[in-house]
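To the team - 6-O-phosphono-alpha-D-glucopyranose complex, inputs and output below.
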Amino acid sequence: MTDIATLSADVSTASALVTPFGAHLLSWRPAGHPDVLWLSSRAVLDGTKAIRGGIPVCLPWFGSPTDSPTRPGQGAGAHGFARTSPWTLLGSTQPANDAPASFSFELHHTGETSALYPHSFCARLDIAAGAELNATLTLTNDDDHPFAIEAALHTYLHVGDVKDVTVEGLDGERYYDKVRERYATQTGDVTFIGPTDRVYTSTQQVQVVDPKLGRRIIVDKNGSGSTIVWNPWSQGAATMSDIGEGEWQNFVCVETAAVRERALTLWPGHPHIMTQTLAVETLD
Ligand SMILES: O=P(O)(O)OC[C@H]1O[C@H](O)[C@H](O)[C@@H](O)[C@@H]1O
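Output:
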């Protein structure tokens, strides 16, 4: 298999790399910082499998199909088909002034012919990569009835060592713990001492404090009622062929999402817009 097509952009404030396969952002490097996104050294980039790292777009369901309120049909895979579908590139810009680089992609799904998800929708992803990263996902119902849909920007943040990282902003929030299979309430900041897979019901900004890389990554969002925090730890990573030896320590996923209890009901004539903004600050 040949590698998927990629497009790169270099502007004064950042560089970025993206592919129409899944409308997947693979890299965002604001000037003066190492990549804010983690991409596995073993990521499969030939279009046969979802890409491990960057920002996969999970749509129209999240996680295992059996857990999803969207009730996908028989044979559905995890996290929906958007991340393994070719999206149409609508346009890209690489301005010479201080404006961000931009990319726009669209995916049309025809429900009439789909056993997996029998509802028609259009998804559009607009990415602006500069000193900040903005990703805007617009979901439009192209059908004649409302339907349930889940969405996640499954962002892999690059960190020095997940064992030293603190995630601020979720104190007091309810979450479903997919490792322990129970609901709980967050007390204080999130730290990592083992496999972590939590679906928070939260609309709040989250900050990832990374003492090893000496930076704070700020994740702001809108139109998103869920935040997923995930790291598979050594035991989970050992079951995944596309994570390199020891590399699980170099990322934490903080996902801007609308899933489970916060899944969306998409109505004809009422698009839903979900945005995620990433920014980086150097620690004192
Ligand atoms: O391996 P994938 O299908 O890409 O999923 C990777 C992970 O994604 C999310 O964070 C889920 O909450 C996890 O349960 C899942 O393991």
